[in-house]
Amino acid sequence: MSYHAPVADIAFTLRHVAGLDRLAEEGAFPDLTPDLVGQILEEAGKFAGERIAPLNQIGDRCGAQLVDGAVRMPPGWREVYRAWCDAGWNAVSAPVDCGGQGLPHLVNAACIEMWNAASMAFGLGPLLTMSAVEAIAAHGSDQLKRIYLGKLVSGEWMGTMNITEAQAGSDLGALRTRAERQPDGSYRLHGTKVFITYGEHDLTDNIIHLVLARLPDAPEGTRGLSLFLVPKVLVADDGTLGARNDVVCTGIEKKLGIHASPTCTMQFGDREGAVGYLVGEENRGLTCMFTMMNHARLAVGLQGVAIADRAFQQALSYARDRRQGRAPGWSGEGMSPIVEHPDVKRMLLEMRAKTEAARALCYAVAGALDRAAFAPAAAARASADDVASLLTPVAKAFSTDIGVEVASLGVQVHGGAGYVEETGAAQHLRDARIAAIYEGTNGIQAVDLVSRKLPARGGQVARGHISELRGILQQARSANDSGLGGTAVWIGQSVDALERTTHWMLDAVETRPADALAGATPYLRLFALATGGAYLAKKALAAMAELRAGSTDPHHGLRVASARFFAAHLATAAAGLEAAITEGAEAIGTAFGDAA
Amino acid sequence: MSYHAPVADIAFTLRHVAGLDRLAEEGAFPDLTPDLVGQILEEAGKFAGERIAPLNQIGDRCGAQLVDGAVRMPPGWREVYRAWCDAGWNAVSAPVDCGGQGLPHLVNAACIEMWNAASMAFGLGPLLTMSAVEAIAAHGSDQLKRIYLGKLVSGEWMGTMNITEAQAGSDLGALRTRAERQPDGSYRLHGTKVFITYGEHDLTDNIIHLVLARLPDAPEGTRGLSLFLVPKVLVADDGTLGARNDVVCTGIEKKLGIHASPTCTMQFGDREGAVGYLVGEENRGLTCMFTMMNHARLAVGLQGVAIADRAFQQALSYARDRRQGRAPGWSGEGMSPIVEHPDVKRMLLEMRAKTEAARALCYAVAGALDRAAFAPAAAARASADDVASLLTPVAKAFSTDIGVEVASLGVQVHGGAGYVEETGAAQHLRDARIAAIYEGTNGIQAVDLVSRKLPARGGQVARGHISELRGILQQARSANDSGLGGTAVWIGQSVDALERTTHWMLDAVETRPADALAGATPYLRLFALATGGAYLAKKALAAMAELRAGSTDPHHGLRVASARFFAAHLATAAAGLEAAITEGAEAIGTAFGDAA
C-alpha cells in the first residue's frame, strides 16, 4: 500500500495540457523553469510517499476521537503535520507578502493531488486552511490579516469553513445562525453548524473558523448572509493566545470513510456568544464564499484524481503479483499474473485513463485560475476567469465521480481480497465517496454548469471551449499516426455531440428549465468525456512527438494507450448521453406517487 | 430504515415476465394460483419487513465475533433465524420427499429477494444451505441423504461451500486441499480454505461443509477435484450428534460490509484429519458444483436486486421528507421536498428502473430454471435449460453491478447525511459491493458468457433470445401508445446492437480470443440493457393493458415510467458499448510496462 507520486505524468500534464510553460513565458513567474517545478514536485512526492502515506491506514483504523469536547487525532498525525508545515508545504501558492511562496496554483494543485493520494483524510484539513487564507487575504481587514494570516499561511493554525446547518445543506438561503453587533465593532454568534470538517482537533493550538451567519436586520435568503472569523482561542492584538472562545465541538460523525478527518458539530454561543469579526461587508458573505469557490471545488476534484491514482497504483501492483489461470497468449511458467488477462487489463486501463483525463481537466482549471490571476493583459485574465468558471463544475463532478468508479474497480481487481479491509483497497472506495457530495454535490455542480456557467456571455465561453477541443482534434487528424487508432474519430464524435447538446441546453435552460435540469448530469458527463478525451489526445500527441524526437521514456507509450482506450471505451458513451439529454427529459416528468 | 417488500411489483413481474402462469398451466404446479402465490409473497414480505429488517443495522454494528474458535452472531439473530426456519421459509423450493414444500424456484427467488433486502448478511447464510441441499439431493448417496438432507431442508443445520484457497480464487485448478481414502469408505481431509461464508456460527448446532479436495492419485487441474461432505459435529447413523470433527475456524475477515456474515478461514485436518464423505463420484467434484452453479449465481444476482430495492426505498423516503430549495414548478409552501428537483428525480428513476430491470432478468432466469426442471416435454426442458444457462451470467453480473450503482446513488440522494453511517444508506453500498465479486467475479461471468454460453449450440440459444426480444418490441410498436414515448425505438436500437455484437463475438471468440475477452464485460452490459429494457417494455405493455381494462392501480403508471426512463437514459448506452466491444479490442493490446 505504498504510494509513488506520479511526478512524471503530473509534470507532463502541467506542461502539455495546463499551460505551465505559457505561464512562465508570459512573465508572471520568470524563474519558474520546468526543472524547478520538477524539483518541487519530486520533493512533494517524496514527502507524500514517505511521511504521509504511512498515516493513511492507521488513520482509517483509529479515526479521530472525541473526548470531552476535544478531538484526538490518530497516532503520528500531529508530528507529520508539523513537519509538513515546517517544510513549507502549506504555503506553496499563498501570497509572498503574507509569508507564502507565491508559486502558481498549478504547482499547488499538483501538490494537493499528492497529499490527498497519500491520505485523503490528511490532505483535506489544509484545503480548508488554504480557503481561509484566500478569504481573509481577499476580504479581511488589515487587522485581521495582520493577526491571522501569517499563522494560517505557515499552518501553525488551521482554518475551517462553517456553512452547513441541519436544515440547510445545498440551500444556503435557509441558514439561521445569527450574529449580533457589539459596541466594540466585533460580533457575537449563536447557532449550530454541522458537518464541519476539521472543526476541532489537536494538530494546532488554535483553529480559525470562518462562519456564515445572519445579522438581526439582514434580508432573508442568501442576500442576508455575512461571513465572520471566529477563533477557537481568542487572540490578543499582539498575537498571543488568550481565553477560549464560546465555540465547542459537541459531536463528531461516524462516517463511511475519511475516518481521521473529524467531521464536527460546532456549537457557537452556547453561553455568552462566540466572539466573531466581520470578513468583508455585512450581508456580502456569499460574495466572499464565491471568491473561494472555484479553488475549493477544484481542490475536491483533485481529491478525486488523487484517490483514483492511489487505487490504480494498488490494483496494478496486485494484478502484477497475483497469479490465476492462463491468459490467452501467455507463454510463461505456470499461472499468469492476472494483469495479463484481457478483462483485468481492461479494468486497469479504464482506471488509468479515467484518472489521467480527470487530472488533465483539473490541471486545466488550475492553469486557467493562474492566468485569471497573473496574465499580463486584463482581457486575458477575464477570459481565463470565464474558462475556469465554466470548467470548474465539470472538473469537480467528473473527477470525484471517477474517483468512486476507479476505487470501486480497484476493489474488483483484487477479487475477494478487495473486500477485506486489511488490503486497503476498500478504504479508497469509502474515502472517495464523500468527494462527490461535499463542496456542492455533483448534482449541484451539474445544475451550476447548465443554469449559470453555460449561459454566461450568451454561451460564448462554451463555444470557445468547443473550438479549443476542435483545434486539438485537428492536430490529431493531421498527425495521422496509426498509434492513435480511432482516437480522433471517437473524440470528434463526442465533441460533435457536445456541440449539439450545448445548443439544445442553451435553449432549454431559457424555455424549459425542468428539461434542462433533467439533462444536467448526463450533459456534464458528456462535457467531461469530450474535454477529457481531447486533453488525453493532446498529451498523446506531445508524447508521440517526443518519441519521434528520440525519447525512450516508457511513459510515452502509456500516454498514447490511455488516449486510445479513453476514446474507444469511454468517449463512445457520447451518443447515449446525447439521447439521454435531449430525448430523456420527458422520461423524468413522472412524479413519484405514493405507490412507488 | 424500514423495509416494505415490493410484493405487488414482484408478483407482477413473476406473471408478466417470468412465466409463472405458464408454469401453472403446463401442469407441474396445478394448485399454484396467482392468489396462492400472492399470499405466500405477502407472508414472506411481512416476515422480512417485521422480523429480519430490524436485524440489519445491529448486524452491521456488532458483526460476527470470533471468540476461541467459535463465532458469536449478533444479538437477536439466532432467535429470528429459528423463527424463520419454523415458519418453513428455508424449505420453500426444496423437494417434497425430503421435507421441502416443492414450490417453484420462481417463488423461492421472490422470497430470496425479500430476505436479502431485509438483511443481506442474514439472507446469505440460507443460500449456502440451499446449495448444499441441491448438491446432496442430486449427487449424495442414500445414506447421506437420509442423515443430512432433512435437517438441512428444515434449516435445523446450515450448509457451507468450501471452495476457495489462498492461492486459488477464480482458478479452481490450483486447489490443494487433499483427501485420503479410509478403510471404512470415508475420507480424511487436510487443508485450509479461505473466505468461507457462514463457515462457523452459533445459529445451529451443526454445520455441514461441502468441500472441494483432491485425492492423492487425482489428475491435476479441475478434473482432479472431488466433493466431500464434512460435518462440523460428527453424526451417528441414527442422526444423533457425536464428537467434534477435526475442522476449526481459525479466523474471520474484517470486511467492507455484510459484517454479520462470518467469512471464515477453515482449517481441515489440523490433527488426525477431518472426516468427510464423498458426494457423487471421485474426481467429479466440479460436475457437482456445476449442478448448483446456476441457482447460486441467480441467488447472488437476487442479492443485487434486493439491496438495490432497499437502497431505493430508503432514498425515496428521504427525498420525500427532506426539503431544500424550490424546484421548478413547485407551488407549495416554503422549500420543496428534494424529490421534486429534476436531478434528484432522475437519480431515483435510475435507481428504480435499474432495480426493476435486474429483477425482471433474475426472475426470467428463475422461470427458465423451473421450466428446465418441470416442463412436461423433454425438448422444452432442454431448451429452457439452455436459456437459463445463457442468461445466468448476465443476471448475476448485471444485477450485482447495478446493486452497487443503485446503492451508491442512494448515498448521493442523501447528500452529506448519506455519508454518515447512522443513516444506513452507506451500509447498503458496503454490503452490495461483495456481490459483484463472490460466486464468480463479474469479469468471470462475462468471460463465461462469451466463451461458453454464447457459442453453445452454435449461437442458436442467443439468436433465439434475440428473437424473443424482437417479439416484445413488435408488441410495443403495435400498441403504439404515446405513454411509452420512444421506448420501442431506443430498445430496438439496443437489440440491433446486441445482434450485431453477438455475431461479432461469435466470430471473435473462435478466431481472436483475446479480442473477445477484451469486449466481454461491455458485451454483457449491452446484453443486459437490451434484455432488461425489453422486459420492462413487456411489463409496461401489461400495465397499460390493465389500465385500459379499468385498473386504477397506481403502480401501473410507474411501470410505464420505468420502461421509458430505462429506454431513454440507460439502453441508449448501446451505441457506445457496441463501439467499445468491436473497436476497442486493439485499445487493450498495450501491456502495462514497469512505467505505469
TrEMBL record, chains A, B:
<comment type="similarity">
    <text>Belongs to the acyl-CoA dehydrogenase family.</text>
</comment>
<dbReference type="InterPro" id="IPR037069">
    <property type="entry name" value="AcylCoA_DH/ox_N_sf"/>
</dbReference>
<dbReference type="InterPro" id="IPR046373">
    <property type="entry name" value="Acyl-CoA_Oxase/DH_mid-dom_sf"/>
</dbReference>
<comment type="function">
    <text>Involved in the assimilation of dimethylsulphoniopropionate (DMSP), an important compound in the fixation of carbon in marine phytoplankton, by mediating the conversion of 3-(methylthio)propanoyl-CoA (MMPA-CoA) to 3-(methylthio)acryloyl-CoA (MTA-CoA).</text>
</comment>
<keyword id="KW-0274">FAD</keyword>
<feature type="domain" description="Acyl-CoA dehydrogenase/oxidase C-terminal">
    <location>
        <begin position="283"/>
        <end position="447"/>
    </location>
</feature>
<dbReference type="InterPro" id="IPR006091">
    <property type="entry name" value="Acyl-CoA_Oxase/DH_mid-dom"/>
</dbReference>
<dbReference type="InterPro" id="IPR025878">
    <property type="entry name" value="Acyl-CoA_dh-like_C_dom"/>
</dbReference>
<dbReference type="InterPro" id="IPR036250">
    <property type="entry name" value="AcylCo_DH-like_C"/>
</dbReference>
<protein>
    <recommendedName>
        <fullName>3-methylmercaptopropionyl-CoA dehydrogenase</fullName>
        <ecNumber>1.3.99.41</ecNumber>
    </recommendedName>
</protein>
<dbReference type="InterPro" id="IPR052166">
    <property type="entry name" value="Diverse_Acyl-CoA_DH"/>
</dbReference>
<keyword id="KW-0285">Flavoprotein</keyword>
<keyword id="KW-0560">Oxidoreductase</keyword>
<dbReference type="Pfam" id="PF02771">
    <property type="entry name" value="Acyl-CoA_dh_N"/>
</dbReference>
<feature type="domain" description="Acyl-CoA dehydrogenase/oxidase N-terminal">
    <location>
        <begin position="40"/>
        <end position="156"/>
    </location>
</feature>
<dbReference type="InterPro" id="IPR013786">
    <property type="entry name" value="AcylCoA_DH/ox_N"/>
</dbReference>
<dbReference type="GO" id="GO:0016627">
    <property type="term" value="F:oxidoreductase activity, acting on the CH-CH group of donors"/>
</dbReference>
<feature type="domain" description="Acyl-CoA oxidase/dehydrogenase middle">
    <location>
        <begin position="161"/>
        <end position="270"/>
    </location>
</feature>
<dbReference type="Pfam" id="PF12806">
    <property type="entry name" value="Acyl-CoA_dh_C"/>
</dbReference>
<feature type="domain" description="Acetyl-CoA dehydrogenase-like C-terminal">
    <location>
        <begin position="483"/>
        <end position="587"/>
    </location>
</feature>
<dbReference type="InterPro" id="IPR009100">
    <property type="entry name" value="AcylCoA_DH/oxidase_NM_dom_sf"/>
</dbReference>
<dbReference type="InterPro" id="IPR009075">
    <property type="entry name" value="AcylCo_DH/oxidase_C"/>
</dbReference>
<dbReference type="Pfam" id="PF00441">
    <property type="entry name" value="Acyl-CoA_dh_1"/>
</dbReference>
<dbReference type="Pfam" id="PF02770">
    <property type="entry name" value="Acyl-CoA_dh_M"/>
</dbReference>
<dbReference type="GO" id="GO:0050660">
    <property type="term" value="F:flavin adenine dinucleotide binding"/>
</dbReference>
